[in-house]
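so the lab meeting is tmrw and i was supposed to have these ready like two days ago... anyway. pasting both below. for each one the top line is the aa sequence and the line under it is the structure tokens. i havent really looked at them closely yet so no promises
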Amino acid sequence: MSNIEYSEPNLDLAVFLRDVSVAYRLPSERIGTIKEYAIRRLQRRIKYTSFLALDTINLSIRQGEIFGIIGRNGAGKSTLLKVVSRVLFPTK
């Protein structure tokens, strides 16, 4: 393993993330139809819980390096790849 400082990105880095977090808002209860969702949203009767998918992730990958992401289901692998590819923007 290389010992990389996470202070500032330099030019030989292909990917650099510092203290990245992604939080999702999930409805507390299941809503069956789009119509029911729209009515509850207009009435402001939907309660949300926050789910932290990524919590202060630091990552730096140099150009030409090969890396893999390993983890169990629900560990945040796809969320991390979406943040790196800029499909999803971090909440922090």
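ok protien two:
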Amino acid sequence: MRIWVDADACPRVIKDILYRAADRAAVETTLVANQLLAVPPSRYIRALQVPGGFDVADGKIVEMLAAGDLVVTADIPLAALAIEKGAVVLDPRGEQYTPSTIRERLSMRNFMESLRNSGVETGGPAAFGQAERQAFAKQLDRLLAAHVAKQAKGGA
């Protein structure tokens, strides 16, 4: 398992959690962004800068991920593509997307986008706080523990 992070909009506190988890669990973690990222020195953490442009980072993540990898993103279309390829997807707020929940999220995203395009003020996401940070850390720990257990049983 590798971790892929849609890093352009990922909150700093979530990146910090991922850095610690990568070293603790010895899991290769790649942050993909269209800007230069500073990451701590680690054999498990790297940053990959892609050219600017609409969904370039998303496309690179989808291109490079393998089934069973973990993708961290709040981007619903990217999450849907990653799930199609067999990845596990975790939102920075701690929600794990599944094949059944991603369809609903994609429909809601498209509906809200159509409202915005017609001039309706829809507001933004709720503030990111301690509860979201804790939910993410808890879900990440659960997913990494499952990965370690699978490895211990001889799985990949």
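from a quick look at the 2nd one: The chain is about 45% helix and 15% strand. The longest strand covers residues 29-33. will dig more after coffe
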